[in-house]
Amino acid sequence: MSVTLLSILGMVMGCSLLTLAESLFPVDQPASMYADRKARRPGDLVTVIIVEQAQARQTAGTSTGKDSEVSVGPGGGVLADLIPLLRLGGGDTFAANGATTRGGSLTAKVTTKVVEVYPNNTMRLEGRQKIVINGEEQEIVLTGLVRTEDVASDNTVLSTFVADAEISFVGTGALAEKNKPGLITRVFNWLF
After folding, report:
1. What confidence score (pLDDT) does residue 4 get?
2. What angle (nearest 5°) sits at the alpha carbon of residue 60, between those of residues 58 and 64?
3. Helix H segments across the chain?
């Protein structure tokens, strides 16, 4: 009887240990607790290190000119008989030059969420970060595609590896309002 009791007790303990082992190492996670935990599934987080710079320069120039002259001498008709020598002339010259230079840079870190994983191991990322400092609100919004192999082991990726990237940096508040032209200036710009 003691052998049977020990057998039953051994089976109960074995089942308990098996249940405990399953809870320590979930089936849907990598087998080893030392395994790489790179983002691969919807809901995983990826930090995008944004390092973007853009420079553009455009120049344009136009130059046109036109000269015309009309002269009538003796034997040129009734008008020439009244005025011995009739001479008309005119000219028009136009020149314009313009240049535009624009540049910008953005450096930031935004943690995004994997919202979809495609069969070719490309992940769609979406994320936003809102910061308020002294009543000035700044928001960074990022969406795009990234390959799983471009994500580092610490779940970071450079923005240069994000395909179809849409990065916007928008600020609102008193300072942003002061940087806009006034109402009268905007009306004149719209009219002319």
Report:
1. 67
2. 180
3. 2-24, 78-82, 174-178, 183-191
What is each CA distance from 25 to 19, 34, 44, 148, 180, in whole angstroms?
10, 12, 18, 24, 57
**Whole-prediction pTM value?**
0.54
Tokens linked to 67? 């000269």
Distance CA 140, CA 106 (A): 10
Residue type, 121: N
The letter for the amino acid at 105 is S
Residue given tokens 């020439």 in the structure block: 80
Cβ–Cβ < 8 Å for 127, 50: no
Please give the structure tokens belonging to residue 11: 């089976």
The Cα-based distances of 161 to 38, 53, 154 in angstroms read 16, 14, 15
Distances (CA, A) of 142 to 5, 46, 103, 108, 145: 63, 12, 20, 11, 10
Share of the chain above pLDDT 70, in %: 57
Measured on CA atoms in the order 33, 37, 41, 42, is the torsion positive or negative?
positive
How far apart are alpha carbons 42 and 170 in whole angstroms? 27
Rounded to whole angstroms, how far apart are CA atoms 90 and 54? 48
CB contact set of 100 (below 8 Å; sequence gap of 6+): 56, 57, 58, 59
> Residues 55-72: pLDDT tens digits?
888 877 777 777 766 665
Question: In this structure, what are the phi and psi dihedrals at residue 173, rounded to the nearest 5 degrees?
Answer: 140, -170
SS3 140: strand
